[in-house]
Amino acid sequence: MLRPLGNNVILEMKEQEQKTASGIILTDSAKEKSNEGIVAAVGPGRLLENGTRAEMQVKAGDKIIYSPFGGSEVKVGEAKYLVLSEDDVLAVVE
């Protein structure tokens, strides 16, 4: 598992099979990237000028919507993750 630093958020990437309306399974290159995910871990928060940390607005287990162009995909062993800044999180799904 990864431990995020600062105000970074880790999403565990899950492979999702996508099909067209007629049932054709799409190849990886034809798939639409989802911008929805479940938070696996959060960092301690942004370091403020006074030395304290800003509280993170998301927590592990939250289902979120994030900016489609935000984050960096990384692979650790067989697991795939997306590391993004809390600023790239657009909403928490409740």
UniProtKB/TrEMBL annotation:
GO terms for cellular component: cytoplasm. Signal peptide: none annotated. It is found in: Cytoplasm. Gene3D superfamilies: GroES chaperonin. Pfam families: Cpn10. The keyword Ion transport does not apply. CDD domains: cpn10. InterPro entries: Chaperonin_GroES (IPR020818), Chaperonin_GroES_sf (IPR037124), GroES-like_sf (IPR011032). GO terms for molecular function: ATP binding; metal ion binding; protein folding chaperone; protein-folding chaperone binding; unfolded protein binding. SMART domains: Cpn10 (SM00883). Keywords: Chaperone, Cytoplasm. HAMAP family: CH10. Heptamer of 7 subunits arranged in a ring. Interacts with the chaperonin GroEL. Together with the chaperonin GroEL, plays an essential role in assisting protein folding. The GroEL-GroES system forms a nano-cage that allows encapsulation of the non-native substrate proteins and provides a physical environment optimized to promote and accelerate protein folding. GroES binds to the apical surface of the GroEL ring, thereby capping the opening of the GroEL channel. Belongs to the GroES chaperonin family. This is Co-chaperonin GroES. It comes from Macrococcus carouselicus. The lineage of its organism: Bacteria, Bacillati, Bacillota, Bacilli, Bacillales. The gene is groES.
